[in-house]
Specification:
The chain is an alpha/beta fold and 183 residues long. It contains 5 helices and 7 strands, in the order αβαβαββαβαββ. The chain has one domain: Rossmann fold. Helix 1 packs across helix 2 and helix 2 packs parallel to helix 3. The structure holds S-adenosylmethionine.
Length: 183
């Protein structure tokens, strides 16, 4: 489980090239994706992580402490539904194995849409399995993906594609959305 989660974090970080971008990790947990991104040869311009768990935010802070001395890395103990950042300040958002924890995805997706700059991207990664897969409900399936696409659309996000990737012992669905640009 932990190894598969780390692989999903790595895959997600490079789904959209984050080099030079302002990046936000919603539900960052212990900071795995932030750490991967911060150590890329061409890292993001800024990295911000939010998690509603004080314990997880603390883990991430410990993991990233050394890197944060020389890189712009910010952590907030805050819910995905109320991120303490200004409108349209982020180019790329990751939500990795977290959306299935949200009571309902709509407020978090609306928040992602608020935070993204025009044409910015949101990548949602979830463990993928058919209905009754042993990991349900800690993940998603085809119906869950369709539901998320509809919810994202309602939040002003356009679905750019979904890819199913195989990790060493699991599968992950990577859903890519972009902020709808004004006509
Ligand atoms: C399975 S962990 C995944 C953590 C990390 N994204 C990763 O892939 O390693 C789910 C994380 O989502 C966080 N979380 C759940 N609901 C949240 C919410 N509404 N707002 C912010 N964080 C949330 C949890 O505290 C937890 O750290």
């Amino acid at each position: 489980m932990a190894r598969s989660n780390t692989e999903t974090n790595r895959i997600t970080v490079t789904t959209i090239n984050p080099a030079g971008l302002d990046v936000l990790d919603l539900g960052c947990g212990p900071g795995t994706a932030l750490h991967v991104a911060a150590t890329l040869e061409q890292p993001p311009a800024t990295l911000t992580g939010v998690d509603h768990s004080a314990e997880m935010t603390r883990y991430a802070s410990v993991r990233l402490r050394r890197l944060a001395r020389t890189r712009p890395i910010h952590l907030h103990n805050a819910p995905a539904e109320h991120v303490p950042l200004a409108d349209e300040t982020i180019d790329l958002i990751w939500a990795i194995n977290t959306v299935h924890h949200w009571t309902t995805p709509d407020p978090g997706l609306a928040e992602a849409s608020r935070l993204l700059r025009s044409a910015g991207h949101l990548v949602i990664a979830e463990r993928y399995g058919p209905p009754n897969h042993r990991h349900r409900p800690a993940g998603t399936n085809d119906a869950g993906i369709e539901g998320l696409i509809a919810a994202a659309h309602a939040a002003g996000l356009t679905h750019r594609g979904t890819e199913i990737r195989t990790t060493s012992n699991d599968r992950a669905a990577l859903m890519v959305f972009s902020k709808a640009t004004h006509q």
